[in-house]
Specification:
The chain has 186 residues and is of the alpha+beta class. The chain has 2 domains: 4-73, Arc Repressor Mutant, subunit A; 85-183, Glutaredoxin, CATH 3.40.30.10. It contains 7 helices and 5 strands, in the order H-H-H-H-E-H-H-E-E-E-E-H. Helix 2 (34-45) runs antiparallel to helix 3 and helix 3 (50-60) packs across helix 4 (64-73).
Length: 186
């Protein structure tokens, strides 16, 4: 039975062989193709494995350092597998004024992770976003892309417990990104 790393390498190889780039899609050739291919890798795997960056570099005949430099420059890319559930806390002004900082602290304690980390059991990834654009519902969190508003610490813990009971398949959801303000750096 292959190790987790070997399985990832094989999965990346298969993906590279069938990617839009290989099939002659519009991704282009050269540096202009790096970001679309990194986005495609993240869409496929839920994160950008090191092996995917190396494979993209080989396919585009670029140094690996160039691809890694581009990938690490942008906040949109993650480099570790996400948890089964994505919990995102809004850090916008309205949410901040209504207690999102305390809510984030409580969630860090409950999940035993800091923002941009995944719990040891692989169940939850905790993230922050600049703004969801749901200010009237402040404070707001998103669990697996579903927005929950007017939250107390107790309500948030209840939602986390419910998500834990439901389980869910890794990669079955897309991380929440929020409104226009959320597209900047976290």
């Amino acid at each position: 039975m292959p190790t987790s790393r070997e399985a990832t390498v094989e999965r990346v190889r298969a993906w590279l062989d069938t990617s839009v780039f290989r099939s002659g899609g519009g991704a282009g050739r050269g540096r202009e193709a790096v970001i679309p291919l990194l986005q495609a890798a993240q869409e496929e795997f839920g994160y950008v494995p090191r092996e995917a960056m190396d494979g993209i570099a080989r396919a585009l005949r670029l140094p690996s350092a160039i691809v890694q430099g581009i990938a690490t420059f942008y906040a949109q890319f993650r480099f570790k597998a996400p948890g089964r559930h994505n919990v995102t806390v809004c850090r916008g002004t309205a949410c901040h004024v209504r207690g999102s900082g305390k809510l984030l602290d409580d969630l860090q304690g409950t999940l035993r992770v800091r923002p941009q980390e995944t719990s040891a059991d692989g169940m939850f990834t905790l993230e922050t976003v600049a703004c969801f654009g749901s200010c009237a519902l402040a404070p707001v969190i998103s669990i697996d892309g579903r927005v929950h508003g007017q939250l107390s610490a107790q309500k948030a813990k209840s939602l986390i417990a419910s998500a834990s009971r439901e389980g869910g398949a890794r990669g079955a959801r897309k991380p929440a990104r929020g409104g226009a303000a959320a597209r900047g750096r976290k």
